[in-house]
Amino acid sequence: MLNQIRGIHHVTSMARDASENNRFFTGKLGLRRVKKTVNFDAPDVYHLYYGDGQGTPGSVMTYFPFPNIGKGRRGAGEVGTTVFSVPAGSLGYWEQRLAEQGVTGLSRETSFGENRLRFDGPDGDGFALVEIADDGRAPWGEGGVPTDEAIRGFHSASLRLRDGGATEELLKFMGYEPVDTSGNVKRLAIGDGNGADVIDIETVPGANFADLGAGSVHHIAFAVENRAKQLEVRKALIDTGHHVTPVIDRDYFWAIYFRTPGGVLFEVATNEPGFDRDEDAAHLGEALKLPTQHAHLRPYLEQHLQPLGA
């Protein structure tokens, strides 16, 4: 069993409209935009990152907003719900805030003894807020949400699978341990992780497979401290039969990818070097940052990429 993985690093999804996406996460959820860059493979498309004040691994939601993308279809073989941690007693504030701002899909529930509020993202993305009493992570304090209610980072993500058995065994190999079961959902967690250290497996036999599109999670990334630990994880995964990519430099972290038995794309990303490698921490996410291979496109991109606002 591996011990290098500390929890979720980031979650990357698809969107239709970059400006709407930016307003939702910075304005409605009060997160900080910590990086404004472009897709490595499609440089005419943004890659937007939102999180806490520093873009701490375990807090970062990222998006590829493709202007002409169709709407995704929910189903098996995908990340179903991405869950953020908020302080105990704050769901009333959030329910009122999100309702006043026109957010859809609001519903309260209790799951694994935790109070949570479900809601939809701008493209029908599945999200929830869960009350956690002892989450000591510092929130972004300048997003228009009072500190006592602000999002601390991720709590968990759910994987919606036809058969969760093989993926459960993979997660156990990655260092997760089963902690509870509720109906068709099995919960696994990493002890002493980064706070974003819970994965739920929702088993839905016979469900249609998901179709990737706006509102779909493209991949979920797991955090390791550095490149040395990442190489250890990569070797162990390859040794157990997984097809893992070479290490890829993503400017703000190094990444490896592999497809899970249930169909979900997993990434293992390093905590280093971080989002302040190319701009001052006080001004994260303000300027358009380009990968070196796309630097020559700056004049074109600055003219053609959709303005985001603040």
From TrEMBL:
This is Dioxygenase. It comes from the Bacteria. GO terms for molecular function: dioxygenase activity. Keywords: Dioxygenase, Oxidoreductase. It comes from Kumtagia ephedrae. Transmembrane segments: none annotated. InterPro entries: Extradiol_RC_dioxygenase, Glyas_Bleomycin-R_OHBP_Dase, VOC_core. Residues 7-132, 153-271 form the VOC domain.
